[in-house]
Each structure stands twice: as C-alpha cells, then as structure tokens.
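Researcher: Go.
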Amino acid sequence: MRTKRMRAGKACLLASLLPLPFAAAQAQSLALPPGARLQLDGGRLEAAGGDLLVGGVLALGAGALRGIGALRIAAGASADFGSGTATLSGDWENRGAFTAGSSRVELRDGPAVSAVLGSTVFANLSLASSSGKRYRLESGLTQTVSGSLQIQGLGPALQVDVSVPGSAAYLNLLPGGSQAIANVGVSDVHATGQHLAPTQTNQGGRGNDSGWFGGGVAVPATPVPMLSRGLQLLLAAGLILIALRRRASAAISRG
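Model: Structure:
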C-alpha cells in the first residue's frame, strides 16, 4: 500500500511538471494560466532557458526554478517562494503578489541586459555577471531586500542602471540585511536604506548614485539666512564698539 502511495505521489509531481497544465506562450516558454496552481514543494522545474509566465498561483516551497529565461508574475497572479531558489538569465517582472519567505532570487549571465520590473520585496537577491552585464531597475520604483544583497562583477564591471535614463530607481537594503558588493557601476539608482558599497568606487557608471560608495551619506547643506544691509551695519558697529572697549580697558590696566 505504501509503495502504491509513493508511486501515486511521484506521478502527481511529474504530472505537475509536464506542459499539459500550461498554455504555450511562445517557443520554449511556459505559462501558468489564471486559475491554475503549480506547487513544487521540494521539486525542481528546469526551463532550459524558456520564460515562465505566472498568471495563476505558483508555490515553490523548498523547490527550485532552474534555467529560467524571464520570470513574469502578472497582475492578479501570486507567487510564494517559501524557502526555494529561482535562477534567471532574463528579466524579473512582478506585477502581482509576491511572498519572498526566506527564498533566494539569482539573476545571472544570458542576454546582455536584464530588467527588474515592478516593485518587489526580496528576501535574498543576487545579481552577478562575468561579462559586464547590465541590470536595469524600473525607474520610479523601489526594490527592497530584507536579507542578503549580492551584486558582483566577476569580470568586467557589472552595471546597474534604470529603464529610463535620468529617471531614478531605488534600492532599499533594510536594517539587519547584509551586502556583498564589488566591481559595480551605478547610474541613476539611489540607495534608500543601508549605504551600499561604502568602501568601493563607481566603476563606469554615470553617477546620480546617492547612498552608494565612499564618503558616507550626503547630508544636504542647511541654508544660512541672509542679514539685511541695516543689520549687517549694526552688527559691524557692535563689533567695533567691543574692540574699542577692550582696547580702552587694556590702556587703563597699563596706566
């Protein structure tokens, strides 16, 4: 009886990973349609570079998404990553409901440019490249990391910039989170939580990198109110009067 149950369980898991519950969005891509649910538990989904389009409910548990091109969570869809791991070579796009749990999202080499779209609260986020890849955060939106933030250029400097040049995006590493950042160029991305890469310098970015790199957090200067001409003359007269009194006091003391 136990063997039959185990076989039935394996059959259910295998069935959940077959393309049958999915609608083909494009060549080598998988789409989980609205109303459908995929629960990996401890299983693994290998996409061989295809995109994963989530329109229903995706639950990773302790499972893994491997070889994903782009992962897109549509409006109205939900993804609970539990303690799982997702490794992507394309875009990350979150327009739905994302629950990070203690999961890890890794963006790696593939296309020369990948975008991080929508606002997401990640548990652990890793951006890495050995080819100087460019990661573009969506302008005007914030990506938040509560645990570990890794941004590593493993060859040419990795570049972090925005979807609309000149229009800032925001990266927020929460208090208590850890960072491992090296060999990175930043353009138009502001760090709004912890100061990022405080011992590093901007490697090839255009700047507009508030909250990054050495020098500490910039504190805006507080303007000093200007005195009117009359008050300036009055202040000068007072200082002259004080000086004359001190000189007279000194002369009396010498006499």
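Model: Residues 1-27, 216-224 have pLDDT under 50 and may be disordered.
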